[in-house]
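Aim 2 progress update. The chain analyzed this quarter is reproduced below.
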Amino acid sequence: MNKNPLLRLLTVALIGCFLSIGCKKKADPTPTPTPDTTKPVITLTGGGNPYTMIMGNYFYDPGYTATDNIDGTITAKVTTTASSVNHDLVGTYTVNYSVTDAAGNVGTASRTVIVINEASAIAGTYSVRDSNYTTHAITNYNARMTASTTQNQKLNINNFWNAGTIINVTAQYDGGTSFFMIGGESLGGSNILDNGNYVYFPQCHVTSAAAPVNIIIDYWVHNGSNDWHYLATYTKP
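Predicted structure tokens:
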């Protein structure tokens, strides 16, 4: 038996070192980060969806925000197709919104934009009672008002004066009670109706813009030495 104290001490130290190294807990591996797969969210604000606007006015986006679970607020990164709205043409348009976060996730949204003619509120087929103040004759017929797709407050009255489907008189409606007759559209905007007949309108107004719609048109038709005074009542259920 080795009785050298120094040797015994060295042996014990070596054994303890080996035991310490062998029993030491290994460090945990670095965890793999969870990839960001969450799309950012675009929220449309103001104006509603669908958004209705009057023809002739520029489309100003009512607003939107974009947020991401990692990047936070990223509204400044949103791109839109707002320029696709033609404010001079009646129709339904779609504005698309898109935003991409730092991880490449894409968030989208869309808004429906409806461009209207104010005169469309009274467009439709009317029953007409046309009273001739000059001859005291009463004529009943149908006429149709069609809202313009390119000019706000404008509409055409087809079959005005019971003159046939080829006669169109342009009218202007402001959305309230004012109703102005402009002239015979079929002949370049003049007041010619047909076969040399001219028409002018002393008074025109909407007595009811809600159903049933009622429009009173007081007008004169002139042909040479003849003048006829009419009062037409247009009614739409």
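Confidence is low (pLDDT under 50) at residues 185-190. Residues 39 and 105 are 5 Å apart (CA to CA). These observations will guide the mutagenesis experiments scheduled for the next reporting period.
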